Amino acid sequence: MDKKPCNSSSQDVEVRKGPWTMEEDLILINYIANHGEGVWNSLAKAAGLKRTGKSCRLRWLNYLRPDVRRGNITPEEQLLIMELHAKWGNRWSKIAKHLPGRTDNEIKNYWRTRIQKHIKQAENNITPGQNFEVNDQASTSQVSISSAAVDTMEITHAAPANYPPNMDAYPSSLPADHSHENYWSIEDLWSMQLLNGE
DNA sequence: AAACACGTCAACCGCCTCTAC
DNA sequence: AGTAGAGGCGGTTGACGTGTT
């Protein structure tokens, strides 16, 4: 699809990139609330967003959808991710289907930033008797983890050092999005959307 | 207080697959 | 059967916040 320039030169609309603004989010939420999702390219145009259809789709699926859960991956979810990744490798969307409210992007990020790091640490500490193989490069990557190794990782992951002491205290509406100064919660956006009327 | 290092995650990129024509 | 457009997916990057020195 994007093998060709996305601006069909006939209409030289400049395409916005980078972080989404609150206004753009509201426009997208509003539009989808009224017209439904799908046919993203025409949706983007019809909604008056200077974004590609792909960008709109990604924003909706990963952030704006009302059922999306953010932050605070539970130890159960983490174990499930590890199990499914061992089974399927980097099939993030497939894995995400088994974690309601989680997106492939979130799981992918979680895996790369948290689990992979700890796997490497565990790899370094692994004793010869333990069965622990990691091949995290290819998309066919497989992880086979002995129960002992899982236990070890579970301990480290349930409360990684860089986590707040009480993960459960994380408000679900305060995403791991503490990183952006102009963040707004989805609840805010949805309530504004409701206030705008339909 | 400033500088640097590190961690996190939203968003983009490029490729692949599917579908309609 | 070939082509083009759209959606989906996995990999990667860049910006920003936080921790450390």
UniProtKB/TrEMBL annotation:
One of its GO terms (biological process) is gibberellic acid mediated signaling pathway. This is Uncharacterized protein. InterPro entries: EOBI/EOBII-like_plant, Homeodomain-like_sf, Myb_dom, SANT/Myb. Its main location: nucleus. Residues 12-64, 65-119 form the HTH myb-type domain. Coiled coil: none annotated. CDD domains: SANT (cd00167). SMART domains: SANT. Pfam families: Myb_DNA-binding (PF00249). It comes from Prunus armeniaca (Apricot). It comes from the Eukaryota. It is found in: Nucleus. One of its GO terms (cellular component) is nucleus. Residues 12-64, 65-115 form the Myb-like domain. GO terms for molecular function: DNA-binding transcription factor activity; promoter-specific chromatin binding; sequence-specific DNA binding. Interacts (via N-terminus) with TIFY10A/JAZ1, TIFY5A/JAZ8 AND TIFY3A/JAZ11. Keywords: DNA-binding, Nucleus, Repeat, Transcription, Transcription regulation.
